[in-house]
User: Fold this.
Amino acid sequence: MSIDLKNLTAKKAHEDLLAKKYTVLELANAYVENIKKRDPEVHAYLEIFDDIENQAKKAQERFDNGTADVLTGIPFAIKDNILIEGKIASASSKMLENYHATYDATVIKKLKDAGAIFLGRTNMDEFAMGGSTENSAFGTTHNPHDLTRVPGGSSGGSAAALAMDGCLVALGTDTGGSVRQPASFCGVVGLKPTYGAISRHGLIAMGSSLDQAGPFAKTVTDIEILFSTLAGRDMMDATTISSDTYAKSPLKKSLTIGVPRHTMEKGVDPQVLVNFEESLTRLKKLGHTVIDITLPNIGYALSVYYVLMPAEVSSNLARFDGVKYGLHVNGKNSIEDYFATRAEGFGKEARRRILLGTYVLSSGYYDAYYNKANAVRKTITKDFTDVFTQVDVVLTPTTPTPAFKIGEKANDPLSMYLADIFTVTANLTGMPAISIPSGFAKEGSVSLPLGIQMTAPHGREDILFTLGKDFLGEK
Assistant:
């Protein structure tokens, strides 16, 4: 039978499976067939798993015996830095090209318990370092809306898989916008939850104080379903929080939305600004209040991020030494083994960030850079906390431009880093943020997706879901 993948959501698929309109295997196979058609030109996937039929059989049994969960039988794409026991988890790096995970990440365990189907692992920037998925050791992913453009990064493979109807929902990770930016570029919904809301256990670490697993979906309703399944305390991750860690005031029907216009004065594409103003008009018509706000220290956010993140990268990637696991290259002695392994195993962007992080952590510069950046991080967090006494949500574009051309920024890392200007604050402050599709920009004959970003106080994903569903007209 023919399944309308383009308009299918996880919620609708669950209803269809309950109504026996099709089986779990038929649903999974519909995605596999579409992947065969589209993925040769998009390259969203690194591997399609060979046990999909067996997964589908187990999920179908749950529908047949009445124990199916809302995510039972739902086909997922999983970013290549999230461990699935027995499967390769390479983080799109030669360093881990043949590494097979020895255990499940907590998010994977929860999805397995729910009966989800894992279609395969998706391409990404190496060790999640990049904003374009051009830094993968295994080739570039292309944006399904325009194959000459990037899908965003570092979770570009997951976003592209969803946008090309190569999965129903997907998982990525977000360190400085790595779920939200590709969600915007590919025209889907992407959530970066409150720091600690979803366990990091079993995620290949990049920046431990910044990383969070985050879901992609076509609707905010599906994102809410995914979040409720994945969130919660985890004994394996001491940074996790419970739903009552942060105090919550009752949800209001009419919300106050703060707009920091001073952050949009330079470097923002005119079509992005027009779309943003149209989005504000839509929110006002829905009964919400929009006011201008000031975040005095937000101008330092990108600089702070690009001190702290490489420092944490330098520490986290020190474990890849050619001894414990992963790639090993022989040298004349053990120290040469180490140098040769890291030189061959890491790509250019990974090496750049390791060097930068090692520099800011070195004895002569630790206080001047790393400690100072941490102090400014606290100040930026206080700015947001203060603003949230006046508003319920802070609204910005997700990205300053639509998806850029493949290769356009490859030799200009600073230009690439500026693409994170609106997204890094949520990771620095630990606050939740969501990217919602808001329209399109015209580039010749091509329509490129745009997104708006909503940021809420700690633990207030419920505000993001309420406003996001309202904006998209979801019931």
In short: The CA atoms of residues 249 and 460 lie 9 Å apart. The longest helix spans residues 366-387. The chain has a mean pLDDT of 97. The chain has 15 helices and eleven strands.
